Amino acid sequence: MTTPGLRALLLDLDDTLIGNPVRTFIPAYFEALKVFVVDTVSPDRFIAELLAATRTMDCNDGTGPANEEVFAAAFYPALGVPRSVLEPLLERFYREAYPSLQAMIAPRPAAPKIVEWAGQRGLQVVIATNPLFPRTAIEQRMQWGGVGVDRFDYDLVTAYENCRATKSHEAYYRDIVAFLGRRPEECLMVGDNWDCDIACAARTGIRGFWIAAADACPDSPGVEVVGQGSLDAFLQAAENGDLESAFENILARLMAL
Asked: Counting Cβ atoms within 10 Å, is residue 80 exposed (0-12), middle (13-18) or buried (19+)?
């Protein structure tokens, strides 16, 4: 049997393609939201119900509707404000207030070079970020990091509108593979979160490159990765051919078992 080659590259966004200090970004995001909704609903209650609905959405395992609808069904009734009232306000928030968070995002110079390399190689490219945000929030962070949809033509950007599972569920990766029309063994996932980006993808047959310190140890060993290191190290491996060699060697061994 012929060993399949690399055909699709799945790229995590936060703390992979861009630096995003979640411990400071999320509180700043919440504070900006509070200011925007204060005239409509209690800000503290808004955030409490937002977090609860997000936890509900994070349990979406591919058996329900899109993440957006799971979130809406949990959020708006609990808050007691009609979706028709609050949704336009949130849309305006993402247009007018969310851009103020740009200063917190750190572009990584290797990121656009990796997307360019993938395009030159003829790979399908997916921004495989956890689909807990609306697409506009994700696309804005992409643009701030120099990898925006205005610059690159992606095959898919996962967001809460177009996904029916979150990244901790295998269905998330199975749906991406099906959308691309590929086999799992033709795909490579690149990300910093061992559990969601590497281990979960591996359970579906997708190999991974772990964005982590070269000497970092995963919480659950036993998953063989194509590589491990910084985003710069990934770019170097891609450009010098080591990445695809490692990818094909792993698959050849697995197929020989």
From this structure: exposed
Percentage above 90 pLDDT, the chain:
89
- 23/3 Cα distance (integer angstroms): 42
Distances (CA, A) of 31 to 34, 35, 44, 57, 93: 5, 6, 10, 22, 12
DSSP for 20-70, please give it: --HHHHHHHHHHHHHHHHTTTS-HHHHHHHHHHHHHHHHT-BSSSS-HHHH
Distances (CA, A) of 240 to 118, 228, 233, 246: 13, 16, 11, 12
pLDDT of amino acid 255: 64
Tokens representing residue 109 in the block:
């110079």
Distance CA 208, CA 205 (A): 10
Does the reported pTM lie above 0.90? yes
Among 168, 165, 170, 131, which Cα is nearest to 60's? 165
Residue written as token pair 């695809």: 244
Closest CA to 128 of 198, 233, 213, 212: 198
Model confidence band, residue 2 (pLDDT cutoffs 50, 70, 90): very low
- Please check whether residue 20 is in contact with residue 26, taking contact to mean a CB–CB distance below 8 angstroms: no
Which of these, 52, 94, 59, lies nearest to 75 by C-alpha position?
52
Task: Give the pLDDT band of residue 49 (cuts 50, 70, 90).
Answer: very high
Whole-angstrom CA distances from 34 to 29, 83, 222, 234 are 9, 17, 44, 39
Mean pLDDT over all residues of the chain? 94
CA distance 227 to 240: 14
